[in-house]
Amino acid sequence: MTRLALFGAGGKMGMRLGRNLKSSAYEVAAVELSSEGQRRIESELGWKVVDADTATKGAEIVVLAVPDTAIGKVAHAIIGKLKAGTMIVVLDAAAPYAGHLPKRDDVTYFITHPCHPPIFNDETDMAAKLDRFGGVAAKQAIVCALMQGPESDYAKGEAVARTIWAPVMRSHRLTVEQIALLEPGLAETVVASLLDVMREAMDEVVRRGVPEAAARDFLLGHMNILGAVIFKEQPGVFSDACNKAIHFGKPMLMRDDWKKVFEEQEIAESIRRIT
C-alpha cells in the first residue's frame, strides 16, 4: 500500500478527506495537534494519531489539510524529513501561488481543489441532494495542477484527488495560476460577493414590507430559472422587460472596471490577504 501522511487530519477538511481515505488503497498516517481533533480521529476513523516524524517516515505522499495561513509553516517544518520523490498535495492554490512552499527541486508539488456539486445536476438520492459540499454522496468535478515534479506524477496526484473528493465525475487539469483565477478570483471575489448582495437585496425588500417567506421563495425560484437560461441548461431567452432591467440595472450594481479583479496584481493581493 502507498503510505500517505495526512496533516490536519482532525480538522473539518481533514475529517472529510479521512472518511474517503479510510476505505481506500492508501496506508494513512494521521497527524493532528489538537486534542479535540485527535479524539475525533480515534473515535470516528479508528486511527491512532502519530507525530510528524513517524508520519513522514517512508511516506510517498503528504496531504496538507491545514488552513491556508499554516501551509507554509507546516511545509517548511517537514520538508527536511521527506525523501526525494515525495509528493506534497495542497488543497488550495493560494499558498503555492504566493510562494509559501519551500524550495526543493526533488519533491513534487500537486494542487487540487473541489468544484463542489453543481446546482444543475441529475442527483435523485436524498443523501446526494443534501451533499452540497461534495466528497460524500454527490458527484462533483475537481481541478488539479502539477506545480512541480515529473510528468508521470500527474496521474499519481490525480488518483489521490479522485479518492479524497469522491465521487468525481470530471477532473480538469489546470495550472496553479488558472486555479487562482477560479479561487479566490471567480468563486469568492465575484460569486460569493454577488450572492451576498442578493441576500442583502432580499433583506431589503423584506424591510420594505414583503413577507420574508415570499421574498425567499421568489428569489430562489428566479435564481433557478434565470440561471438555467443564462448558463444554457435549458433553451429560452429573457423577456424584453427582463433584458431592459439588466441593461439599466447592471451599471447601477457593477463598476465599469470590475473585471480587473482577475488581473494578476489583484489576484496576488487577494491571495496575500488570505495567506
Can you lay out the helices and strands and say which pair or pack?
Elements (H helix, E strand, L loop, with lengths): L1 E6 L4 H11 L3 E6 L3 H11 L6 H5 L4 E4 L3 H11 L8 E4 L3 H4 L10 E7 L11 H5 L9 E9 L4 H12 L3 E6 L2 H32 L4 H19 L9 H14 L10 H11 L1
Parallel strand pairs: 1-2, 1-3, 3-4, 4-5, 6-7
Antiparallel strand pairs: 5-6
Helix pairs in contact: 8-9
Level-2 CATH architecture of the largest domain: 3-Layer(aba) Sandwich
Principal-axis shape equals globular
Number of strand segments: 7
Biggest sheet: strands, sense, closure? 7 strands, mixed
Strand content: 15-25%
- The overall number of domains is 2
Strand order of the largest sheet: 2-1-3-4-5-6-7
Radius of gyration: 22 Å
User: What number is the mean pLDDT?
Assistant: 97
Poorly predicted ranges:
none
In short:
This protein has 11 helices and 7 strands. The protein has helices at 12-22, 35-45, 52-56, 68-78, 94-97, 126-130, 153-164, 176-207, 212-230, 240-253, 264-274; strands spanning 2-7, 26-31, 61-64, 87-90, 108-114, 140-148, 168-173.
Structure description:
With 275 residues, this protein is an alpha/beta fold. It has two domains: 2-174, Rossmann fold (3-Layer(aba) Sandwich); 181-274. The protein is 49% helix and 15% strand. It is built from eleven helices and seven strands. It has helices spanning 12-22, 35-45, 52-56, 68-78, 94-97, 126-130, 153-164, 176-207, 212-230, 240-253, 264-274; strands at 2-7, 26-31, 61-64, 87-90, 108-114, 140-148, 168-173. The protein has a seven-stranded mixed sheet, sandwiched between helices. The radius of gyration is 22 Å and the shape is globular. 29% of the residues are buried. The model has no long low-confidence stretch (mean pLDDT 97).
